[in-house]
Amino acid sequence: MNPTQLLQLITDFSSAWNKHDVEALMTCMHHDCCFETVAGNEVYGTRIQGFDAVRQAFENTFLSFPDAQWLNGKHWLSGDAQFGISETTFTATTLDGEKIEANMVDVFTFKDGKILIKNAFRKSRPVQVTI
Fold first, then answer.
1. Tens digits of per-residue pLDDT, 35-74?
2. 68 closest CA partner among 27, 35, 98, 42
3. What's the Cα-to-Cα distance from 6 to each of 14, 19, 46, 75, 111, rounded to whole Å?
4. d(CA 125, CA 76)
5. Ordered structural domains, the chain, with CATH
């Protein structure tokens, strides 16, 4: 895939997140994909490995944050187009009514024109409780 197509891939991926469209998300992911989450006990957060497990993790995101949005997206590629970056502002309300708003970055590794690794990073901010 050429750089223009890879940039479109991560742009489409970002759009699918805002639509809560798991099927569209998974069309962007490589069959051997890996998702490294923003939180977890390991230095990399939690590593979700394999197509079905990643699909379930993405579905769980929408269950945990029913109004989640990734706003103000900016996307670019490394000079050799082996890696991509998406920068967004994540906004969501937890099931307990807590508001989240934090900048985040996804770092993508590509294989065969798909996302092989989605490595997510998000600023840590105190949540705001809605009354």
1. 999 988 898 889 999 999 999 999 999 999 999 999 999 9
2. 98
3. 12, 20, 26, 10, 10
4. 25
5. 3-123 (3.10.450.50)
